[in-house]
């Protein structure tokens, strides 16, 4: 069983409280007031309410910490060496279409390094947690990345650039290479859960470009604590700030990286 630190308890209280509102609103989609931020980028009342709850709960418990949140942006606290990185609703498009695959993602960054992360899918009641050096868990069951070593038997997750984002041709080239050598590719629609699934061994690897820190901060720690490797697509060590991410089990990471490399 995972050892719950005081820090993790703070994060779990905030996430569970915010999740109640998301579950309620998910059940009443027709009543949601939805505004449009940009092409294929929607924000709902549910999203904003969840962020407000998370911010209030985290600030109450750790009043000096700074924030980086998807909707309200960056906010320095008295302690700028510690920062909450928060996505109140990862998988907004799934949520708004009634697809029960979305999550709350919260990570704590200390001096530039992610030291704790929580990803929660409230519909499946799957709670993924990780603290640096203490392993990764889902609902208190320890996670390990898969042990697959053959590309032909491997399943990968990815994110597809949507309307308003560039890189469509580049992605299609990557997809063609991976499709030709593997047992399949999945686009499930929430980066945090893609990374959680790598950590759980459900998929053998995941790649995406154009990510924000709140999309992947908690998931990066989960994969590392489950024994996986996480880099940029070209093998650099700081995917959180580069927005380019390749995560996989140790055997598959270099193979997937070679597949995705530009010719």
TrEMBL record:
- Highest taxon of source: Bacteria
Q: What are the alphabetically sorted keywords of the record? A: Hydrolase, Magnesium, Metal-binding
Annotated positions binding Mg(2+) 2: 90
Q: What class of enzyme is it?
A: hydrolase
For this protein, the Enzyme Commission number is 3.1.3.25
Q: Enumerate the transmembrane spans.
A: none
Which molecular function GO terms apply here?
A: inositol monophosphate 1-phosphatase activity; metal ion binding
CDD domains linked to this entry: IMPase
Obligatory cofactor(s): Mg(2+)
Q: Name one GO biological process term.
A: signal transduction
Instruction: Name the Pfam families on file.
Output: Inositol_P (PF00459)
Please list the reactions this protein catalyses: a myo-inositol phosphate + H2O = myo-inositol + phosphate
Query: Is Metal-binding given among the entry's keywords?
Result: yes
Residues at which Mg(2+) 1 binds: 70, 87, 89, 215
Q: Carries keyword Oxidoreductase? A: no
Q: Which PROSITE patterns match?
A: IMP_1, IMP_2
Q: Give the family from UniProt.
A: Belongs to the inositol monophosphatase superfamily.
Would you tell me the protein name for this molecule?
Inositol-1-monophosphatase
Q: What organism does this protein naturally occur in? A: Rhodospirillum rubrum (strain ATCC 11170 / ATH 1.1.1 / DSM 467 / LMG 4362 / NCIMB 8255 / S1)
């Amino acid at each position: 069983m995972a050892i719950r630190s005081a820090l993790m308890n703070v994060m779990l209280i905030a996430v569970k409280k915010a999740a109640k509102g998301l579950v309620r609103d998910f059940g009443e989609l027709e009543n949601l007031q939805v505004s449009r931020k940009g092409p294929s980028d929607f924000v709902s009342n549910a999203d904003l309410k969840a962020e407000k709850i998370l911010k209030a709960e985290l600030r109450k418990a750790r009043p000096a910490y700074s924030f980086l949140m998807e909707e309200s942006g960056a906010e320095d606290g008295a302690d700028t060496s510690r920062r909450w990185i928060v996505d109140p609703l990862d998988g907004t498009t799934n949520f708004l279409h009634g697809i029960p695959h979305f999550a709350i993602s919260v990570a704590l960054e200390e001096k530039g390094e992610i030291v704790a992360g929580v990803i929660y899918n409230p519909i499946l009641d799957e709670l993924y947690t990780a603290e640096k050096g203490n392993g990764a868990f889902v609902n208190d069951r320890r996670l390990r990345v898969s042990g697959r070593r053959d590309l032909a038997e491997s399943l990968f997750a990815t994110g597809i650039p949507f309307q308003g984002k560039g890189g469509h041709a580049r992605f299609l080239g990557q997809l063609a290479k991976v499709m030709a050598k593997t047992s399949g590719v999945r686009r499930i629609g929430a980066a945090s859960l893609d990374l959680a699934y790598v950590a759980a061994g459900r998929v053998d690897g995941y790649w995406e470009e154009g990510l924000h820190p709140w999309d992947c901060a908690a998931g990066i720690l989960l994969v590392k604590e489950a024994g996986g490797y996480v880099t940029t697509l070209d093998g650099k060590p700081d995917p959180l700030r580069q927005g380019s991410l390749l995560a996989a089990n140790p055997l598959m990471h270099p193979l997937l990286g070679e597949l995705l490399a530009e010719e």
